[in-house]
DNA sequence: TACATCTTCTTGTACAGCCAAGTTCAGCTC
DNA sequence: GAGCTGAACTTGGCTGTACAAGAAGATGTA
């Protein structure tokens, strides 16, 4: 489990601090060493230590205020971006066995929403994959993912019972940024059948667009989770807020 | 609407850049000026410009990679932390008229969850307020908030039809950090009555703990939104992830 | 035209130093 | 003991420098 030295000093320091926090060396509420102490300890400059701390703040692990020692925030263990993009990786990281069953795979013209989210011209084709995802054999999520053609052509060659995302990464794709929209919807007839729940049961819906480092969309997915079994957690603060709330008005349907 | 000069150079630069992005000077996908250009323009050092950009990255407004100019990310307009903590402020920022109706106000012993979330000793008292929140007169959310005693004593003196949070801020409280847990639940009988929906209708549940700058909990709230009308959006990336996903296992109830 | 190479530009990482502002704590006073 | 004062400590903000690594565009070649 030895963390890689991530090619930069401040990252390896940040990783060590994170590991120490996870291991309980610094409990929630505890005060961390000062910048100068760590600078001595790692033989680094104060600026480098500050970069390491900034990374921890960005992950919502610690809080920092002028004049006072930094303190550890409590709450759930943090997850990496990679764990959010791949259902399989996430499942393993929380100690469960992921699996998947393909419900449908289509190669067709993009819908309006898909074209917009994937930044495609009107009428462009997409690969659209519907899968039921399971934890320890029990269905917990329906995944409806649209891939633009260049990505989709890779996807069709991948075993869909495992992790498509991880395979795409091995093929050289880099998932770098994502935008998630989360709301609650009633299960449709198909949802109910696939997840083995009542029709109109509450589902947690996550719509997600993932892009590569240069901003090119790689996938647009609408995932529906069993409402009470899966939850998302976000941390934010005055200085650091990637969360927003939206009102769409009453639905017509 | 002239932004305050936030007392530090990098903040005012960040604010100007944000305003320019919002105003469309830099459209989504467009490339921003380089660090050296801005350093000349603002007569600041490169480090200060980098701090300003770091703030934009933290807000999920731009993306940044070594070697390439920074680019503007598309997507929804960003909101401030303040808009998330206060329903009233949020409503006004999205152009709707907020209101509230008190359903219940209690002063009682904390439940186990409340005591844990507010870091109170077992048996300590809390003030617990249940309100129905409305947009343009239509109910969209039920707010069930527990305040620790020092805060609650202020709350009872505040007109509950308006914004309690904003009033608390005027009284000197500082809401600095928050942790949000989002899932979907079926409406209980009480929920259904208060929101005028069917029982077991899907609701989006947000559980939120807000703390002051030193980490002292100020409130613990369980808010339930009409499922299809309100959504939360989160942006994250490989370097910056405050979002995580959790599995709680099948519910017994 | 298509491709490879090279130069230039831009951002990332790290160092050093300075002052300001806020916190903490010991010590003093009442 | 309670409260105030002030020194020491700690983080925030800013400047400057240097080099490395990646991206982008220009140039040259086949």
Automatic annotation (TrEMBL), chains A, B:
Residues 7-76 form the HTH gntR-type domain. GO terms for molecular function: DNA binding; DNA-binding transcription factor activity. GO terms for biological process: negative regulation of DNA-templated transcription. It holds the Pfam family UTRA. The keyword Transmembrane does not apply. InterPro entries: Bact_HTH_transcr_reg (IPR050679), Chorismate_lyase_/UTRA_dom_sf (IPR028978), Tscrpt_reg_HTH_GntR (IPR000524), UTRA (IPR011663), WH-like_DNA-bd_sf (IPR036388), WH_DNA-bd_sf (IPR036390). Signal peptide: none annotated. It comes from the Bacteria. Keywords: DNA-binding, Transcription, Transcription regulation. This is GntR family transcriptional regulator. It comes from Kribbella antibiotica.
């Amino acid at each position: 489990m030895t963390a890689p030295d991530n090619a930069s000093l401040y990252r390896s320091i940040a990783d060590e601090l994170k590991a120490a926090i996870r291991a309980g060396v610094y409990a929630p509420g505890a005060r961390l060493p000062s910048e100068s102490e760590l600078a001595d300890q790692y033989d680094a400059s104060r600026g480098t230590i500050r970069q390491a701390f900034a990374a921890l703040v960005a992950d919502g692990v610690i809080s920092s205020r002028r004049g006072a020692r930094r303190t550890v925030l409590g709450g759930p263990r943090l997850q990496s971006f990679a764990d959010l993009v791949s259902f399989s990786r996430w499942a393993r990281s929380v100690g469960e066995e992921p699996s998947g069953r393909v419900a449908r795979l289509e190669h067709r013209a993009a819908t309006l929403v898909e074209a917009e989210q994937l930044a495609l011209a009107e009428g462009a084709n997409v690969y659209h994959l519907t899968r039921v995802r399971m934890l320890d054999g029990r269905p917990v999520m329906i995944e409806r993912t649209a891939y633009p053609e260049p990505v989709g052509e890779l996807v069709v060659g991948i075993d869909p019972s495992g992790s498509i995302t991880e395979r795409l990464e091995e093929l050289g794709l880099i998932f770098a940024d994502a935008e998630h929209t989360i709301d609650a919807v009633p299960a449709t007839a198909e949802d109910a059948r696939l997840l083995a729940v009542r029709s109109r049961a509450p589902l947690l819906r996550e719509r997600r667009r993932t892009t590569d480092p240069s901003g090119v969309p790689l996938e647009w997915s609408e995932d529906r989770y069993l409402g009470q079994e899966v939850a998302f957690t976000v941390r934010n603060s005055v200085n650091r807020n990637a969360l927003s709330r939206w009102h769409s008005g009453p639905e017509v349907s």
